[in-house]
Design a protein that fits this description.
- By secondary structure, the protein is of the alpha/beta class.
- The protein has a domain at 162-384: TIM Barrel.
- Helix content is 38%, strand content 14%.
- The protein is built from 15 helices and 12 strands.
- It has helices at residues 18-31, 45-48, 94-109, 117-127, 136-156, 160-163, 181-187, 205-221, 237-246, 264-273, 289-297, 312-325, 339-347, 366-369, 398-403, and strands at residues 3-11, 74-81, 86-91, 172-177, 191-195, 226-230, 255-256, 279-281, 302-303, 329-330, 353-357, 383-384.
- Strands 4, 5, 6, 7, 8, 9, 10, 11 and 12 form a 9-stranded mixed sheet that branches.
- Helix 9 (237-246) links the parallel strand 6 (226-230) and strand 7 (255-256).
Length: 406
């Protein structure tokens, strides 16, 4: 079966951005006078809290990531086969990613065998070599690759996790990411990850303030639940080492993304200076190559590719195989927040956990507060089972896609 067309567009589900989620949650809670107990009258953490980030050293952008992140929408990529069957892939950073797909990849991939996904991935990786297959090109590769896997599942009438060999477990154990720890416990999550509030830009006090935040979370969840800390590219090696030493008594399962993602020597030094602290990284690595370097040098205990950014399902499976051979776990970034990560995690034995990023406010259920892709599953009591529809089970008609696209 040949590829008939490939097209990428800007895409936004209704009220799907975190800022709209936060405002909708706030409006709902302001009308509900009976939900003030237990801290449910507070704003969602993502709208409320400062989080340490790579731009924290610049005061104008320090208070919130939305002050400097690009305003590009999501991308939806639709690959249509000769018989009219279509697959749907999604990623971030719409406008420039759409250009890579529509103006470079699509004209050269139309007419290729839509089932030859390894070949098509290799073609895209090599096509983008003049401007690098990392960064924005990797987002474009991801969108096309995910659409091809969705199309393949639909053509064969099976879910993508079956194409990968079938379920490796009955359900996926999920942890919650965010700073409303008490609410995540109410939702049934048994593990949680904090977004670190302070970094080197905040001076020496940052070490103590971060310790207070971790101590509060540890007191809430107790000693028998796992706690992690996301440092979101905000630290340098010295700060990360000093912070880890101060947090040693709180038994963090891992510290995540401590350094700028391209600082490979820094990760090696961090591993050398913190032999006792588990480290997670890879959210902002593109293609399998940086992961190969990390596996070879044993810099990470947990690898965290984002399936919508790293090069799609094809790249993620390659990463899982190399990591499994080395005895290193893969826990995809935001893997429970989209059907792509859900199907992959359900099938791959080397993915023990799934991450669910919670951006809605306390008191708002996941069903109400998360604007998900139609057909996508949500965690229940800290566990998730993906849908079993063909492909990724995405329930979007071509009419839906057109109405949500621009």
């Amino acid at each position: 079966m040949k590829i008939k067309s490939i097209k990428a567009s800007n895409f936004e589900l209704p009220s799907s951005t975190i800022s709209l989620l936060a405002s909708a949650d706030q409006e709902r809670r302001s009308k509900d006078q009976g939900e003030s107990a237990g801290g449910r009258d507070r704003e969602a953490w993502f709208a409320r809290d400062e989080v340490a980030n790579p731009m924290s050293r610049y005061p104008r952008f320090k208070s919130h990531r939305n002050l400097w992140l690009p305003g590009w929408s999501q991308t939806v990529c639709v690959v249509v086969a000769e018989d009219g069957t279509y697959g749907v892939g999604m990623t971030s950073y719409g406008t420039p990613v759409n250009a890579v797909i529509n103006e470079h990849f699509a004209p050269l991939l139309v007419g290729e065998d839509c089932m030859a996904i390894e070949r098509l991935w290799d073609m895209m990786f090599r096509l983008s070599s003049p401007y690098s297959a990392s960064g924005l090109a990797s987002y474009a590769i991801s969108a096309v690759d995910l659409a091809l896997w969705d199309l393949k599942g639909k053509l064969l009438g099976v879910p993508v996790y079956s194409l990968l060999g079938g379920p490796s477990r009955e359900k996926i154990y999920c942890y919650a990411t965010g700073n409303d720890t008490d609410w995540y416990l109410e939702l049934g999550f048994q593990a949680t990850k904090l977004a670190c509030p302070y970094g080197p830009a905040d001076g020496l006090d940052a070490l103590e303030k971060n310790e207070e935040a971790v101590a509060t979370a540890r007191d809430l969840i107790g000693p028998h639940r796992e706690l992690m800390l996301d440092c979101w590219m905000a630290f340098d090696v010295e700060f990360a080492v000093r912070q880890a030493e101060r947090l040693r008594e709180y038994n963090l399962k891992w510290m995540e993304d401590c350094l700028i993602p391209e600082d490979f020597q820094g990760f090696t030094e961090l591993r050398r200076r913190l032999p006792w602290q588990s480290l997670a990284m890879g959210e902002h690595w593109y293609s399998p190559l940086p992961f190969l370097s990390s596996v070879s040098n044993r810099t990470a205990d947990y690898l965290q590719p984002d399936i919508q950014w790293v090069g799609g399902l094809t790249a993620t499976v390659k990463i899982c195989h190399m990591a499994e051979a080395a005895g290193i776990s893969v826990i995809p970034h935001g893997g429970m927040n989209d059907p792509y990560g859900q199907h992959t995690s359900f099938a791959m034995p080397g993915i023990p956990w799934g991450e669910f990023f919670v951006a809605s406010a306390p008191g708002i259920s996941l069903e109400e507060g998360f604007r998900r892709v139609p057909g996508m599953s949500l965690p229940v009591d800290g566990h998730l089972t993906p849908n079993d529809g063909p492909g990724f089970g995405i329930e979007l008609s071509m009419g839906d896609i057109e109405s949500y696209s621009s």
